[in-house]
Design brief:
The structure is a homotetramer of 335-residue chains.
Chain A lengths: L1 E6 L5 H10 L3 E7 L3 H10 L4 E3 L3 H4 L6 E4 L6 H10 L3 E4 L7 H14 L3 E3 L7 H11 L6 E11 L8 H16 L6 E7 L9 E7 L5 E7 L1 E13 L2 E6 L7 E5 L2 H6 L14 E3 L7 H15 L7 H18 L6 E2 L2
Parallel strand pairs in A: 1-2, 1-4, 2-3, 4-5, 5-6, 7-10
Antiparallel strand pairs in A: 7-11, 8-9, 8-15, 9-10, 11-12, 12-13, 13-14
Helix pairs in contact in A: 1-9, 4-5, 5-10, 7-10
């Protein structure tokens, strides 16, 4: 039975607590938050759990083998570092840290200490993303050509990070998970309509040596909520709409083979070229799968799906995007 | 009765012919094309119309007061120039010319000759765009903040122009028509998946001094056809979906007034903030309205809605976008 | 070259004229209508066609081999009868006649005269219905269990027929075409909100010996236009949405095989059981196919798809439905 | 503090327990179920609650003022009767009882004992239904003409009741709540595709003296889940789609005033006549509102919204529908 402590019981904390409670082979024994009210809430919902205002009481507790960190991003590095130094396995909320330097340092430390360091990219555990991963790995799409994601809604205007750092990590982590290639260049543009100058609308473009283009459109200012990703290969194209209750993934035949023969002349294509296939995707809570993968990784010493390398890569891409935003939106090589 | 000649009877020609036939106060007396078969088709459908293989027979025909040019873009300049020199009013297909230099030269000539020079931005005559124009001009949206357009489908891979020159003119003309301000900078990025290196996926971003950002996403490689534009003001936001048969325009209350009071702290906003209103938009053929505006302008000596200044501005924006595409996607000032 | 006359040039007439013009192997030589204005319109669009105010000039014209009757339903019988007596092939608009007695008499006469008698059920020629027919005939759906159709909109309140006679023929003809079995009983209910007592909302239910139930919901009073049909088999279920531009037909796996094993106990089924498949359906004008089938039938002496037996059956079903409406909605056997 | 006992902890029980826990002014002190496993589950989630296998321990507990009965419908009558005799207030799951005789008897007993007897029509507490109620009561729709509901999905084939008793109560309770008039006649038709002869597809029609027609279409055999209700008045029409996350209620102008002037002649109406308005409906758990209404009614001695008269009426309508199903679907007067 792996004993777990949770540091941070804000918006996401209750979901983590509830899910770790339902995973076999572990038990949450203590929750920490700086706000007494939040702790009372945890106690009310889960009377068996211990509560504390001091992170140290979790970090220095010898019973506890693994710590879940769900605090604001600015504290991720110092808390995760302390936990690793105290020989705990660590699961940290996304994004992993506020810079790639911090993220790299944590990775080195975890390696030295031989501990699991994982980032909560819940998204990668959804059955829809798993299905997409399978289709790509089996080469059903053919050569990947583009990834185009729209993630917009009337959103929480964050006071410390812009819309890219808030919304794009979902798509970037998916991209890193699905595409086995580093981007060649990164470019971003955006606008702020608030006094704090943090972008509330932004567009991120990644280019790859193999010819893939990835474009991510983020906004907190859209009256319509959209979560739509197109992943185009030269054989098939996937449309992934995360808000669709029953048709999350649609697979379109492109009919590109027809086109290649006619390469030299114009080609008028109708609305659709081929058939569409909609696989059944079961409903299941990805957060529970993520929690299970953390426990499994601790036991097996294998890397989890949402591993720290993806965590680092996402932070790196966001950093370069930030530099592009400040450099007249120009493309910056991903070194 | 204004007598009209049409040069070019390809894909769009029959629509122009049919619509000018139905407009009062004008009559199409001659159609020219280089392909005999196309002319036979015109004759079959409209037995009263004259046909010719020689553009000169239209340009030098003293009876003809106005000429409609529906040929490939490379010939727009020379044909329109000849027509203006021969004292004809000219309606030219979009885009107006293949460079802003050409477009400017035509405008100067038209001014000197005191002739109408109009570009067929049919789109601007649709009742949906007219409704949007009215809403913006009455300040119902409040301060405009963004314009975000997606125009993607499995499309005709053009052999002479990239996807921006093919699809973006619709959105750029709408932008020039709706926003009474020149952009400050233009930036574009894209990719080509074909041997001819013409982009089949591209993204265009325009920034304005007043804080507006405009983003246009174009693709010939999407299995889903989307024609969706969001126009966001600080009071209301319009969602314009041109493929919707009955709900083309949706107007969303943003509830931004509530937000401004809470500017300093975070704000969690739900799916929707306010009510939605869907005005009834009648179905009507915009091409006929465009044809009528051409005839009306000739008679009244007033500028048409789809005037040559918009035509020039669209070409200029496309030219700068092209330069950005070749300069690591960086922002280029619109001079 | 089969020469054709058209009697009746109202709402549907121009579509018939245009399509018969484009069919090879026939030519429309004369059009008749009681309104001079309509004839002038025909002449303007098709200068080569003759016009007349006298149906007799078509019926007694020896050159004419086939007549298309597109007049109000009350005149179908007498006009079709005169045409058949004059040895013409006849295509009559739907519904075939205002009673089954009339329809039967026309069938006998056509048989005696060895002429084609066809009803314009354009619908049966749509590629969507053809695809459904193929799927059913290949037994891909398994045993058919139900047919459920909704055909509602804000409609033309007809002054001579109720909503069932106006809208249901589309569904009933489809039903007769797809299901190779006569109904066992017919039942209808409805309401009139107008002074003329003609139902503007009505529901029609047909039961079959094999266990099929068919239900057709018709309304002229719905603010939403719906054209949706579910055809359920024990293996697969088709959803046919005629207003969908690109996904007219969706084929659902039912997963019934799983269920049958658990017949004896309750079964909680989620939103969807199996995969969905959306075949590509080309866009094509069914009216042209119908026109071609008429000409082909005349030449080959074979029955057309939209044959007079289906025409008679539709009228018979409507007649019985009418009796049920007047008999406290009770089920009436289809004899 | 009103003390509550819950009898029955099956599918719905946990939702009831959780919601009554969150209501102020009451506390659930004991839960009863015949299955030990279910009780352990309750205990795990709510350690403070008492558990028992004996309903008597709740019914005869003097501390308990109010009992919630969430058992199968066959036991509703006897349990509710025992609770009322023991001077408890009673909230019973829908449908209230298995016959109108039973429901009437409970109502009489509750009246004699001066206790609240309420039926859990959660639906009536949804903000969407509340909005519709307000619109109708303010006469915004004008004279109501029809109510048309579709409630279909791939469903739980119940082993004791048919699809009407399973799904229609939602719509019938809404109908009784919204329309202040008893139906004049009831008619039902349907089919069973299973060996137990319980209808899995059924259609229910109610007619009202004032000219309203209500039609409810129920199916456990549809691959598509639909929850759609149209409520048509002569001024406005509401479309209520319960599966829509953000546009549950759409209000359509009918434009009927235009029509009435032209009553005598045909009227061709386009897709839509007037504008559409989509009010914002907040998300909120109706079950909590229902629980609060129960407690409020106990304290104030006022009738709850989901009162026992609606409960009785629903059972009565279902009974008559059942008789119509067995009498060749004929209309039966509602006495």
């Amino acid at each position: 039975m792996i004993k777990i402590g949770i540091i941070g019981y804000g918006y996401w904390g209750p979901n983590l607590l509830r899910n770790f409670f339902s995973v076999n082979g572990c038990s949450v024994i203590k929750v920490c938050d700086l706000r007494k009210k939040r702790l009372e809430l945890a106690k009310k919902q889960f009377p068996s759990v211990g509560i504390t205002l001091q992170a140290g009481e979790i970090i220095n507790n010898d019973e506890i083998e693994a710590v879940v960190i769900a605090t604001p991003v600015s504290s991720h590095y110092s808390l995760a570092r302390r936990c690793l130094l105290a020989d705990k396995h660590v699961l940290v909320e996304k994004p992993m840290a506020k810079s790639s330097r911090e993220a790299s340092a944590l990775i080195s430390l975890a390696r030295k200490k031989e501990k699991i360091l994982m980032v909560d990219y819940t998204f990668l555990y959804s059955l829809a993303v798993r299905k997409i991963k399978k289709l790509i790995d089996r080469n059903e799409l053919g050569k990947i050509q583009y990834f185009d994601s729209t993630r917009i809604n009337l959103g929480l205007f964050q006071s410390d990070i812009n819309v890219l750092w808030d919304l794009a990590p979902h798509d970037i982590s998916m991209l890193c998970h699905l595409i086995h290639e580093n981007p060649r260049s990164i470019q971003a543009t955006g606008i702020s309509h608030t006094v704090n100058k943090l972008e509330n609308i932004a567009y991120l473009t990644l280019k790859y040596k193999s010819g893939i283009i990835a474009h991510i459109s983020c906004s907190w200012s859209s009256p319509v909520k959209i979560r739509m990703t197109l992943i185009g290969g030269d054989k098939k194209i996937i449309r992934y709409d995360d808000l669709e209750p029953t048709e999350k993934i649609k697979i379109y035949d492109t009919g590109y083979n027809i086109r290649s023969e006619e390469k030299k002349r114009k080609l008028l294509v109708s609305y659709r070229v081929g058939d569409i296939y909609i696989p059944k995707i079961d409903n299941q809570e990805p957060l529970k799968e993520m929690a299970e993968d953390f426990i499994k990784s601790i036991k097996s010493h294998n890397e989890p799906i949402a591993n720290c390398k993806i965590g680092l890569k996402v932070v790196k891409i966001l950093e370069i995007a930030q530099r592009s935003l400040k450099s007249k939106s120009k493309e910056i090589p991903y070194q």
